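Course assignment 3, question 2. Fill in each field.
Student: A.L.
Task: Predict the tertiary structure for the chain below.
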Amino acid sequence: MFQKNHEPNVNMNQKIEFFLQEKTNSFFSEDLILFIEDKNDPILNSYLLKNITSINIRLEKKGLRLVYFSAIKENSTLLTSQTLQYIRYRVPVLYSLTDNELTEAIETLLLKISPEEFYKIILDDLDLPYLNGPGLLRIMSRMLGENKYKFSYCHIKYHTSEDLDALFSFYIEQVKLPIVEYPDFERIDDSHLLVQRPRFSRNSYEYDADSNFEWESKKETDDLKQIIDDLKKEGKYGVMFEAVMYMLATIKEEKPEIMNKVRPLLEKKRLLESKVILSPVVIDKSYKIILPEFGDIEVKMHALPKTLYILFLRYTDGIRFKELYEYKSELLEIYNQITKKDEKKEIEKAISDLVDVLKPNLNMQCSRIRASFRKLMDEHIAEHYYITGLNGEPKKIGLPPHLIDIRY
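Answer field:
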């Protein structure tokens, strides 16, 4: 499961001790460094409590952050409204809780769970081997095609607090963001997605929506970029609280009124390795898009992307872009019902442009659909709700048909 490169040194300049390669999930993000300990070390914990802020100030310059569970436990002021917003963004089922209920649940858990218990749960759910603590765990690189990640673990060995100063200074100096190991792919900084740029024929300058879909449909809009950037900035400790929420079962008996609202979380025994908790999508009689299990939040879209989205909800087996023109009359009917407009020429032109695969409008609307969900939830959940598909194949919404409820 892992390779041991060399025996641990007491030298403060020791580099990475272990390399681990396992499948991971959305919880353990690439900008996160997690402190782990198998038993309490009073000197080290005292040092970290005193210096965690200054350490993270230096790490933030590299786009990284150290998550230290004990600091979270001792600082309840971190539960700001922005942090709660971040938690719901990562775990949308928690939209069903009020701020007070969510805060109460988190604070109760923080009192009940020891750091050692927390770290063991994380390692178990990442399916990583037992690691001799204390140390620093992070992602070194990832292989996109196989969704595999290479983890590194740096064992902390010291004699005095001065040694700890030297160790953390060296670690911060050499640590870098993970490397992506995959050819012909490019990072989109806004969302940490990797998408392949479209390839065009040298002999043809004709635009094709299908071949451009993968690239263009995942480009971020400016307003979405701002929302995600703000969430990351304000929710820098949210990843820890998100993990804490996965352990809500510890208060099942004490807080039944809270637990009844997050029962889907408790029905999973290994929550971190489960895919996602999904809500049905409901199209009501007013053509609003509602997610009832996520606190009845409405996914807001303009009329044209909503028209396209409803059409794809109707056809769960998918639609090839080159055949979309065959659904023009159906799109006109949906668009008319949503807009209630009388300008027939304007409506006809909007739908004609939409079904024309030689124009970029189709991918533009797919991008707007995706952005509407990404404003409310993280990518690993949103991807089940927007339109996806490979070049030449039917495009579809990945939500299971039994979770689609069209009521108009």
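Instructor remarks: The mean pLDDT is 78. The two ends are 53 Å apart (CA to CA).
Grade: pending
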